[in-house]
Amino acid sequence: MKNIYKILIAFIGVLAVSCNADDVDNRPVIEAETAPVLLTPKSDFSIVLSKETEKNVATTVTWNKATYTGKQTIVNYTIQIAKAGTSFANPITLMNTTAISQEVTVEELNSALVNGGFIEKAVNSVDIRIKSAVGASGIPQYSNFFTIKATPYHVPLASSHWLVGGATPGGWSWDGDAETEFPLVAGETKIYKVSLVLKSGEGFREFLANDFTSGGNWGATNSHNYTYYADAGYTIDSELENANDGDKNFKYTGPTGLRVFKIDNVAKTITVD
User: What residue range is the signal peptide (predicted)?
Assistant: First the structure.
């Protein structure tokens, strides 16, 4: 009786393997047929991105669908960008979709560019293409590509302060990126430092926050002037003095040139090196 059970179990096992093999053999084969064709944006596209317009649509990427033989299934598309001339050796994913048209906002495009190592505040040549994939194994197909021009904006640190004034490169302006970011020193929480060209004989002020509008984020509650620090007992560099301009701003008296401005809120010192 035991031998009969063993024979029966072995038979069932062979039958199961045979059925599975038949299922694999009869499974519909999906193969790549026609690659997607990128339509827009074309190589004449150029854009200067800005923080103020980050929610606007930068461009609409459109393409003709990819086709595959075999049983129809969902085709997944990836919009890829890369540094021009690199043959997409290190492609950057802009976004994924199952549609054949996708709006890309200024913020989305800027984020992909900055994270992809493109140069901020400079015109970059960017290759763009579409990758399609379907099935468990992916079966990728790639479209043609166009080379567009894009100028990404700087993405500031949330912890940064800001310098605005005639002594700074942007003057008394908040337009675009005119203001100077004044970031925390890496690993610190109370020490700010920045390298910038300071103009002799001109004033400036430190601002605590930036609303990223051309109108600026003025106001006494959002800024620290010379007397704020003097009254708090800070030791202030001899090349800085009270501008006595009504707002009691800092006045830089040293030579015009590249300097390192630092406010150390631990040691309570303000230096220009």
Answer: 1-21
What residues does 204 pair with on adjacent strands?
250
**C-beta separation of 208 from 222 below 8 A:** yes
Q: How far is CA 59 from CA 92, 117, 228, in A?
A: 17, 20, 46
- Name 225's bridge partners: none
Domains 31-151 and 160-272 alike in fold: yes
**Phi and psi angles of residue 195, each rounded to the nearest 5 degrees, phi first:** -95, 130
The yes/no answer on whether domain 160-272 falls in CATH 3.40.50.10240 is no
**What CATH number does the domain located at 31-151 have?**
2.60.40.10
What are the sequence ranges of the domains in the chain?
A: 31-151, 160-272
Tens digit of pLDDT per residue, the chain (273 long)? 555 555 545 545 544 544 454 444 455 577 889 999 999 999 999 999 998 899 999 999 999 999 998 776 789 999 999 999 999 999 999 999 999 999 999 999 999 999 999 999 899 999 999 999 986 567 899 999 999 999 999 888 889 999 999 999 999 999 877 899 999 999 999 999 999 999 999 999 999 999 888 888 898 899 999 999 999 999 999 999 999 999 999 999 999 999 999 999 999 999 999
Q: Which of 147-177 are b and which e, b meaning 16 or more Cβ less than 10 Å from the residue's Cβ?
A: ebbbbbbeebeeebbbbbbbbbebebebeeb
At residue 5, φ and ψ (nearest 5 deg) are -60, -40
